[in-house]
Fold these 3 entries.
Entry 1:
Amino acid sequence: MIDIIIHFFENFFNAFYNLAYAIANPSAWLDWSDKTAMVRFIYYGASSELFFVFMVIFIMVTLLGLIYRRFLWIVMRGLEGFSNLVGRVFAWAGLLMVLQQVAIVFLQRIFRVSEISVGPFGFVFTRDLSWYGEELKLYNAMVVCLCCAYTFVQGGHVRVDLFYAGAKYRTKRIIDMLGSLIFIIPVMSITWMYGWYFLWRHLVTPKISASDKLELLERKSRLLKWNVETIGFSPSGFDAYFLFKILLVGFAGMMLLQGIAFFYRSLLELIEGPDSEGRYLDKDVLEDLTVQESSA
């Protein structure tokens, strides 16, 4: 037990040095022309060092925000605004999915076309209709993964109210804070760590494992090369399934940030009282067409 506590505080205080070093030496992990820097990026992308760096940043922002609450409102609004922006953009993937499905049905059943060629910029991209049919899954995955945080901001997720609805204002804020700290942030952190290595195992070779030490990866870097997964479920089917793995990591990252934003909103609303409930909340409002028709 003592060893665990010592290990925790060692990593916690080392996080300050790791953060400063990463900022001062970006080429050590962002210069992908250097394969050693690339394996450092892969290793640190889901490492315990990164976890403690984010913990330090989270604690520092929280403490500073308790002193200057306006700063914490700005951080919260920035995180929620990012979720809203990404969600509103990728929600259009649902429309693209419908339009592409209609086009496939017409081309296949009426015009008996077997493949589609797209080349608006001189580069012709030709794939079988079954490829475009399976690609519809990608649009659906975009909506699910990249609009999840946006839906959270908009209050669109299903909430199971056992006692929350009848709880007092301060009790609700405390429940929301605990829900963020105990459920959203830890679960999304675990999803990120597993999804990160799952992604890179299908992008580069030799395969990289979560149990590999940095020293071993740096020795492997001499053999490192891109090996992007292009295997489909059918001979002429969609063959870019690595994009789904990128979306998985994107989903975990966005929901992790939204969990932090939800914690900050709940904390600020707890401190400032009922008058601050829903402050700066950018929610979409659908106009009531029946009211417009009656007024016209």
Entry 2:
Amino acid sequence: MRREKQTAVTVQTGDSMLPVLGAWAAPGGHGAGERALYRALREQVPIIDAAILKLVRLIGGFRVACADRRAEEALAAFLRDVPVNGMSGGVESFLAAYFDQLLTYGTAVGEIVCQGGRVRALYNASLDDVELRAVTPLSVEVLRATNEGMQPCRWPELILCSALHPEPGRAEGTSILRGLPFVSEVLLKIYRTIGVNWERMGNVRFAVTCRNDGYGSAADRAQMLAREWSRAMRRDTVSDFVAVGDVKIEAIGAGGEQMESDVPVRQMLEQIVAKLGVPPFLLGLSWSSTERMSSQQADVLTSELMAYRRVLEPVILRICRTWLGLSGFSGEPEVVWDEITMQDEVDHANAEYLAARTEALRKKGT
């Protein structure tokens, strides 16, 4: 019996760079430094990382509807079980990493991995391994880093790309962290100063001043006081400090006034929260706000999430169309998103009830 030959699953946008003469062929471009800066911001300012993770989780789930019931059930099973990046599974895992990359860097790149004419996996590409280049004003080409330089991907129809708020004439998007490096630098400087001050307050330094009026050599007396003070300040024993003459002991910096940090820290955090678009109460910031204000902030967040969903929906539809076409199904899929929160469903129900009641009263009056 002849065994069917299995082809290997290959990823176009993966790291294919090989060592050449002791060096690595790395993709060029000025965006590498900017991406490193955004990664450092997320690592050093926890509230930025928490806000992005909150947005990723709040984007919510979805289902895909098809006219053919059999195709819809098969597609749902594929989206639930498709391998992602080798260690994850399900299209929601792929979208979580894709959306996280999109928010952090303004650009996200993924790939539909095929084997034997079928979709076998989804892959989130690193922006350090690829480069986006505008071929024409209406088309963008994805290139991968190889030993021969940047080469275009062989099957561009399997590449998924998204850009967040791209500038006119540019292929790359704009990160939501743009504008925050300066604010974050000031915030970190305040936190660093607070840490240094508390370290000094916890480990007090003293200034010992003595007047040498007729007590012999000043150097000998200074050495004697230093020995007595070191013995008195030892951690493993309790001892008294004995000195002769006019000796004055003061804590270094005790007379200095501690600067208030509440106002400047809040000003910096307000700038960060305003840029990220996440309500303060979701980030653990207990700022004074009324119930009405919290409701309005939740409505604004809902509008932001709906805008992000419109950016992600073409990616989902492209994955579904590719799988349906390679699996022999026809028809156009439709993405049906879940309600963002239960409060939204209550508000929608109340709005429909009030609209129906208004219409009934209008008919009754006529």
Entry 3:
Amino acid sequence: MSANEYWDKQIETLSRAELEKLQLESLKEIVNFAYHNAPHYKRAFDAAKVSPEDIHTLADIAKFPFVDKQTERETQGIGSFLGEMCAVPETDVVFVSASSGSTGVPTLSPFTKTDFDEWQDVESRLFYMAGMRNTDRYVHALNFTLFVGGPDVIGAQNLGALCIWAGTVPSERLLFILKEFKPTIIWTTPSYAWYLGETAKKSGIDPAKDLSINKIIVAGEAGGSIEATRNAIETLWGAQLFDFYGISDIFGACAGMCEAKDGLHIVEDHILVETVDLKTGEPISDGKQGELVLTTLRKHARPMIRFRTGDIGYIDRNTCSCRRTHSRIYITGRKDDMFIVSGVNIFPSDVEYVIRGLDGITGEYIIRVSDKNFSAQYAVEVEKQHGSSESDEALAARISNALKTRIGVKPCNVTVLADGALPRATHKAKRLIDERKLNFSI
């Protein structure tokens, strides 16, 4: 791989020892900064009887208390507009994003000018890693209204690509843009990439032949890292698909796929990543599945020290085949989406892996979790592909057996619907419907 295959070769290919030395220097500085400038961190560190002087190695971060969404909500607006986790005066803040509020009160994420500029340099790095160059035309089809992913288009501009700020326009308008402007790259969610491709075909447009898209970037859902889903979207569009991972509490995309498509490289010069046990919160070793915990190393407006993301996955710190040394994370699901049936932990992504890989169905699905005799059970609704001659009973049995083979537990029921019966998502798809009356906590 030549030097021009990297946005910042020096940073992206640092040896593990050099990278961890850089991380430790940054960790000491940001923990000290947070303690002395953010009221929440001083109070929380003092209560836990820890101080910035306790950081001697990267592993020492485990001595410090967690923060999470609830911490953000409880401290927001206290003492100032930006709250007690903010470590700079409001006059130093040039941008705020806000979470969707889908799991509670929307939370603000502030940025200083330096925070913002460094964030967009990260976006340029991830875009470049996915193959974007200054010869590309790029459509940014993400929400611009307070959404943290909106400004990421600036990272593409900084790279030199011709950028089309489409936003969340109606599908017909977006297809018009794709036809007339002939862009080569688009960023959206996996569900919408599938929906848009289907919509194009119904309009007489073959995305693989009639449009110029050769790369699709997706984020916001697990689909881009599920091989069956990725293959289905790539076949539909005749394009390469690259998954990105971002989180509103940190900044836009902070991890992404390289051409190897083996996990998502997380930008370790900006973020320290841990995995912890779901129940105990104790750190677990690399390669084992747990909850991802992120610590910002350079963001000063609101440092995030040991933020519990709610995302379930594991880490690989070995050098990738692309020769980048930054760790790869593998996201397998959301803690709040996981359900347990007959002692087996199940994520919607497990079901999606099966559904997207089977013939004779559209790939759309809904999971319904319910309780019976004090136990959890799950049912699946799918759509039979138009023109299929397979009986509904045979198709349901085939799907049920495939789910049992992959997951270890059969669904209590598989409902086969007609093509088009299930709702299509224009942003993030709601795949899991929890109908339980009992409390099945993790």
